[in-house]
Structure formats: C-alpha cells, structure tokens
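Q: For a teaching session next week I want to show students how multiple molecules come together into a single three-dimensional assembly. I've collected the sequence lines for a complex. Could you give me the predicted structure tokens for the whole thing so I can convert them for display?
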Amino acid sequence: MIQFTSKGIYCIPGKFYLDPWQPVDLAIITHGHADHARPGMNKYLCHHFTVGILKSRIGPDIQVEGLAYNQTIQINGVKISLHPAGHIIGSAQIRLEYKGKVTVFTGDYKIQDDGLSTPFEPVKCHELITESTFGLPIYRWESVEIQNQRLNAWITHNQGYKKTSVFIGYSLGKSQRILNAVKDMGDIYVHNSIAKLNMAYSDAGIKLPSYQIIDPMTDMKQLDGKIVLLPPALLDTQLLQKIPHVAYAICSGWMQIRGARRWRSADAGFAISDHADWNGLLEAVKESGAEKVYVTHGQTASFSKYLNEIGIEAEEVNTNYGEELSV
Amino acid sequence: MIEFATLINALDSSNKASLKKEAIIRFLTFAPEKDKRWFLALMTGKRPRRAISTKELKTWVMEITGIPEWLFIECYAAVGDLSETLALLLPPASEKLDKSLSEWMEEILQLANASMEEKKAFVLTSWNKLNTIERFIFNKLLGGSFRLGISSKGLINTIAAHFQIEPSIVTHSIMGEWNPHDYAFDKLVRGEYSDTNLSKPYPFCLAYPVEKQVEDLGLITEWQCEYKWDGIRGQLIKRDDEIFIWSRGEELVTIQFPEITDALKQWKGSFVLDGEILAAKEGQILNFNELQKRINRKVISKTLREEVPIVVYLYDLLELDGKDLRSEPLQERRKLLEQLCQGQVDPTIQLSPLIHGENWSDLQKLQAASRALNSEGIMLKKKDSTYYVGRKKGGWWKWKVNPMTIDAVLIYAQKGSGRRSAHYTDYTFAVKDGDHLVSIAKAYSGLTDKEILEVSRYIRQNAVEKFGPVRTVKPELVFEIAFEGIGYSKRHKSGVALRFPRILRWRRDKKAADIDTLENIKKLIP
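A: Of course. Below is the structure for the complete assembly, covering every listed component.
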C-alpha cells in the first residue's frame, strides 16, 4: 500500500502523499512543523487545529481541508482517518485502510500528556511507520509535573538574583507548553513568532495565560525577574544580548545529555520534549500490534536493529524529516 | 550530597565564569567541612584507587537493564561519558537516600578490601537510591577522572578571593600531597598545616608566545635567551636528602627517571630546581618521540635506560637551603644556579645553555635554525623577572619557530567526549603512499563549532559503518595539519608520527589528489 519515494511517503492505491517534502497534488499532513508541512502542495488535508497553522506558516491562500480525530473519509478506495499523536496541537497519526490492511504513519508523537495537545492514542495496524528521534535508552523523560517544577524552581532561583529567565523552545508546541507551565511565576513576554502561533491554540478553544510581546523596542531594563520566551532562531542574536541581567535555558529533549547542554553553553538546559522517549517508542510499537515497522527519522539504525532483535520486523527508511531538530 | 550535586550541575551547565564562581562560593558557604576537603581533594586529582573497573559497572548495568552490548556502545557514543551513560540507562530509583560527599567517599575507600560480591551489592544498592545526577557523581566518585567545568586556576582564584588570600598561597598549599582526613579546609587552603611536606613543588612559571616583533621588547641585553626545549618540564626537589621529581602536570615522576635521582644524590644541600627532562645521546637532544617511550612506565629497565638516555637542562633555581628565591630577579637566581652546578660531575644534569646575540636579528637567525637542534625556538626571559605563578605577560616569552604543515585527508572520525559528544570531532588523517592512503595523525582541535557541525554532517552522510564508535569516511575532505616536530614511530601506518598535530584550516579549495605524499613528508625528519 505504501511506497517510500524521493518526494515523500506515497500511498499507491490512494494516489496521495503523507508529509511530502516535494510538491505533489494531495498531501496529508500529520502536524504543522516545517519539516512535515512544506509549501508547494496543490491540496492539503490535516486536522482542524492544523488548518490555521498551515495558513499562517505557508500562506493564507493554500487549499486546505480539516478533519476531526477519528473521522473517516475515503479517497480512491482508501479509508483515511486521523488519530491523536500528542506531539503538538492538532498533531495526528494517519491511519490508512485498504482491502482490510491497515497502515499507520505516526508523524512525530509523544506518549506523555502535556496538558495542551490531545493525548496520544495507540492505533492497531499491520504496518507502522514510526519516528525514532530519541530512539536510544538514554532518553527517558521525567514526568511532566517534575519537568514543570524544575522550570519554576529555575525561575525562582533567577528571581533571587533579579535575573530575567529566558526560555528557548520551538515556537509551535514547546513554547505554549512552557507558557502554560510558568503561568503563575510572573509577567511573561513572548516573541511575535510565538504569539502568532498562540492564535492556533485560542482558535481551538485552548486558553493560554496572558502575555506581552517582546521586540527590539521593548524596554529591556524592565525585564529583571520576569519571564521571556524566544524561538531557537533568536539564540545567537542581539535581542538576547540586549536583556541586561539574563539567564537563558534551552528546552529540548537533546538537553538530556550534558555534552549537548555544554555544546550550546546555555545557562541551563531542560530535557522537555514533544517526542516519545525510548520507552514511549517501544510502547507505541508494541501497542500498535504491527507485524512490520518502518523507522523514519532519528536513531533509525539503532531502533530498527533493536526491534528486530526483540522479534519485531523493522526496517529503516530514508526521509527528509527531523531537520529542524538540531537545537 | 545535595550541595555537591548542585555545585556540579551549576559548573557543568554554564560557560559563564561569574555563575561558576557564584556556585563555588555557595558550596564553600553551605557545604559541611568534610565535604569541602573532599571537594578540594577530588579537584586536585587526589582520588582513591579505583576499586571497581568500568567494565564491571558496564556489565552490571547491562544485567539490570537487559540491553545488549551493541546498544550500550551506541548510547555511550551518543553521551560521550561513561559515568553519565550508566546513570542515564539505569531505571529510576525506588528509594531515596541522602549521604554527604564525605560519607560516600569513606564508603568508597572501604571498597578497596571488599570482595567482588560486596562491591556489587554496594553499587547496586546505591544506584537504586540516587537520582540521575547523583548517580552520575557517584559513578565518577567510584574512580573515573573527575574533571569539572572549571580549570584548576579558576577554582584557585575563586577560593583565594573567598578567603581573601593570594592565589599563589592557595596553589602552593593544595598542590602537594595531603590527605583530606588530616587537615581542616581553612587551614589547608591557607597552607597552615605542618611544613614537613618535603615534596611540595612550586607552581610553574609559564610564558606567553611573543605577540609582536621581538624588536619591541627593547634592549636585547635586558633579556636572558635560551633554547626552548620540547621535553618534560619538571621540578627537581631535594630537601633533607629526599628527592622528588614533579612534572608540569603536577604528577610525581620520580621513579621514571632513576638517573636523575642518582645524580642528585651527589648534590649537596636542599634546593628546588626548574628544568626540562630530555632524551639525549652523545650530546644531541633527541626527538620527543624517543622520550615518549619512557613516559607512563612502572618499571624502567636497564635496556630502556640505555636505549633512551636522558638529560636535564636546568632553567631556574626556586629554593635554596629553605629560602624561597622566587621573588629574586632572574639574574640573581641564575648566578646561584650556576654556583650550585659548579663542580658537579654527572652529566645527567646540566645548565640550560644561554645563547647570545649582539642584536635581535642575530637571534632571529638562531631562532630560525633551532629546529635542527630539536629545539622549538627561543625562550626570552627578562633578567630582572621574578618567578611568578602561572602565565603573566611581560616577564617571560616563548618565541617559537613556525609550525610545519602538511595537507592530509580525513579518513576516520569519532565522536568527541564531554561537550563534543553530539558531534564528530576526533579525526584521523592520511597522506598518500603510492596509490594508498596511510594514516599519519589524529587531531582534535582547530575547527570552529560551525565547521564541526558541517564536517559532522558530511561524516553522517558519507560513513561506511552505521554502528560502533569509528566511522570510515570517504576520503574527500582535505585539511592543513600543523605540527611542531616529526619523527619515526610505529603508532601510525605511515611509520611517521607528528608532534602536537592540530588542524590549521579546512582546505575546501583542495581535493584528495592534492594532499602530500609520505615520501615528501619523510624528508622533513631531521
């Protein structure tokens, strides 16, 4: 049913692509991150919550249709439905059924409930196409509750020294998670690129804490003891340097490793991820009941070798996903 | 251990000196007395003997987690630190335990006489009561080298500022051999404990490279000029007829150079000498590769002594008959040194010969020719300079000959450790030998972070292997490698080894066909 092509993951009977990286006619999109939702498709199909994100990121005039979770449609005899992936708002696993055979493409996902995204639901299938970003057993996340406590403790520490706490995280998904986690800790400023995506949350009826916008015109002297959220692109820029008493933290699964924290040389690193950890990946694979697993981006070689060793047939496939994950 | 864990976490996660200082002072203020002593002991390399091998720790973690060895190796490669890999792989603790750093150290000390079952029980029970960062520290305490995100100089300066004393006093006090059981922390850093510590060396005086033209240094007559020797910088101490030899890495190397002890036995009085240990035959200084054969050996055989005879060139006299001479001007110290050497018959220990030039351009000629003597250039020391601590500008300068360079191609890559663990940073380079490529040098530094990312990406995309630590790379990327010396060696396939190889620049303009040939490179060997 599925073919891995140079344009993306192709559904042969359905004649459409899943998260393609080159222009095609019909693209079914798992979620709104740039490595999965690319410009240039004739038509996009995604979850309702992702529609606004695609319009904001790719262009207001794109042709895009939204689906609800668990709603089924048919294209060229292939039954298609979307299921919560728990990665970010609107993120979906794509379930394809054709002549009794079921294939599921996870896109990016996490098992932990972050309190904002619709929590991950396992989907039974014959074939599973899974990511493996953190597919090594050294990646094991702490509970969301403890992660949030760590963020708040760090802010309190910084406030003791009258420092501004700056969090660096992806503008879509991670930033809103942080925003929600630190809501009771003081005044919050976010960069405009994050504020734009906050709209997707309010459109979906998810209430985020109130915040102000930070831009080069903001009086940085007022920021002592306050909280700022910035996307990774602003990491090595003037804006960060202009804040007089700054402590900045990177929020990313890669921060699990000391070496990665030191490489980035931030003041702190928090292993907060929107991807499944090692146990999460294994759990998802096992719960799907799949007979055959295709491993896309991440630790593809190690994860597929391990699956084969525990008796689950697995194979690596080459895709263009994961490029934005090198923070 | 909470204070210590907080300190490690803070030192580890920031690059800002001010934050590190803040964290150390917090630790010095709040940590229990015994923990502070152990902290200092660990930071200065005074750790107990390793009671459990890393292989055992690894085996136990694989037993507990059930992960196969190949996967363990992959994890280790991604983390770049064994203690951390072990800590991350273990399942979450099921109990909580708070022991102080010193309590942990006492228990670890007792492991020395325990059976393997007892050791295993102790480690497994401890792991189960610690969180990830505590486990990481515990694993380090069990014996790995404990390097923290701060230089010993940074630590010393912070402690000195905190206690409002001179950094040199702190350095002097904590450098020698002491035991954390014996001295109070405050007394230790102030150097107030008994001075029967005969072995204690002084901190070495170091030089910066000449920055501009040597002519800018003023009158040549104000400078003492010597060749810069490439051996092991050492301090030779004789106090109350006991002899100690320290390397610059603050290690005691007395037993590795029995000739020096034999020679010094004939010398009268008590003194501390600064000099260079060199391999030498028939009056000729040999390549550093020769000296390397004698480093890190437990037993120095007679054959080795004959194969690689050594000589010490004395630079300076730091202490004579109990008197610290370091604040005397260099010319006074040199005079006393010459008097001390007078009449000594054993040729193992000699004065470092002074060289004289009428003017700077005379000296320039000697400098340019220094490589032929297996010297790296010339040392310029102001005649009125004191023997200061560490590196300062003004008194001493090193005036090195330009490095030699070759163009070589990248053939193997490995991930680094520590902060470099996410990227391929350790490279092996090859040169042409007929139709073949032969490895000639390994290099770890010289690229910017940005270049490392780019080279890492190339390696990921062009590597032959998928597993294991070493990646064989398509030989396409050419780099200019600089080095200080060259000699024959069995370490590399080429049969040639470079001294201090490092990447000078990435030659994007060159192809693998343009690299140097082994034949030409061998012509550089003196």
